[in-house]
Fold this sequence. Notes:
The protein has 15 helices and eleven strands. The chain has about 425 residues and is α/β, with parallel strands linked by helices. Strands 1, 4, 5, 6 and 7 form a five-stranded parallel beta sheet that branches. Strands 9-8-10-11 form a four-stranded parallel beta sheet. The chain has a two-stranded antiparallel sheet with strand order 2-3. Helix 5 (about 155-170) crosses helix 6. The protein is elongated and about 80 Å long.
Amino acid sequence: xxxxxxxxxxxxxxxxxxxxxxxxxxxxxxxxxxxxxxxxxxxxxxxxxxxxxxxxxxxxxxxxxxxxxxxxxxxxxxxxxxxxxxxxxxxxxxxxxxxxxxxxxxxxxxxxxxxxxxxxxxxxxxxxxxxxxxxxxxxxxxxxxxxxxxxxxxxxxxxxxxxxxxxxxxxxxxxxxxxxxxxxxxxxxxxxxxxxxxxxxxxxxxxxxxxxxxxxxxxxxxxxxxxxxxxxxxxxxxxxxxxxxxxxxxxxxxxxxxxxxxxxxxxxxxxxxxxxxxxxxxxxxxxxxxxxxxxxxxxxxxxxxxxxxxxxxxxxxxxxxxxxxxxxxxxxxxxxxxxxxxxxxxxxxxxxxxxxxxxxxxxxxxxxxxxxxxxxxxxxxxxxxxxxxxxxxxxxxxxxxxxxxxxxxxxxxxxxxx
Length: 418
């Protein structure tokens, strides 16, 4: 039904917009076009956007106003719509920038002879470090002399933090969602009214034989360090069920995945657009103590059981005193009964080792240091804080190699950062 609907949309006048998004592959299939699963929420947004565009444009033929690129990837209807549409509306998600097909659509629209307008729409939050090219993720605004459709400040804030999909899920957020959709529609209508119709006989795409716009950019590096015992150096009486022959073998969570926590964290980092490098704390300590310059932001993952070693406590105190905002710290409390019984004591050891991290900074950072006791919480905090560490790294004061006072000033500047 979708394919016939798409065909009808592109037979008449040029569509106002082409909605590009990255659908999720079917779990029991591959990623070929016919094996992609249409997204119900995206389809509903597409319908909402068509209705809003129709209302603002006065069009009597709403179905022809917008084309949704869903399961007909690479088909002639898709190519024709991409060639003829006045606006290209990429639905921005982390998956979007890893989808080579979306990258080729982006290139094809940007390089076609007849220029059009690109209007990005934020669907789900995307860390700025995951953007392979500059993309404005704010809610779009029409150009002068058009007065922007009103959008409440709270709706703008939630759009920036959660995207349109988040607004759809937010209790009581339907009005905020509608305001944002109308604003996007207003920008589409303005751009379409300013654009010429395709000329008769204008060359059309035969296929998307163009480069992926997202493939030639480099990812941001991210160091991931782990401070945990190995099976040969456990605290007296500690069960060995969570450990392996190296600190990086540590698996605190029993969620059916027999993959060490740092390896799983690295995979999350890759999904966010980072190029992760796994290290032990010993290997990264020179950077954490300021003895070597950092060439990337870092995430330090701690097993609090290591703090039964007095030497480990002293080493973390020295790190804590450095106050490096581009190093994010996450403590993982294993989900075994022994750890649950020892939670209070382990918390005291953390307080002794990382007093600065536990008392300063944003609440979300303090919670991550204080301890995360299941994989969902850990993954969520990592996603939120990895981008923050990257931004702090990019904005960090550079150390002076010639002036001690300059070094002190840098330390003060770092401390003042949020």
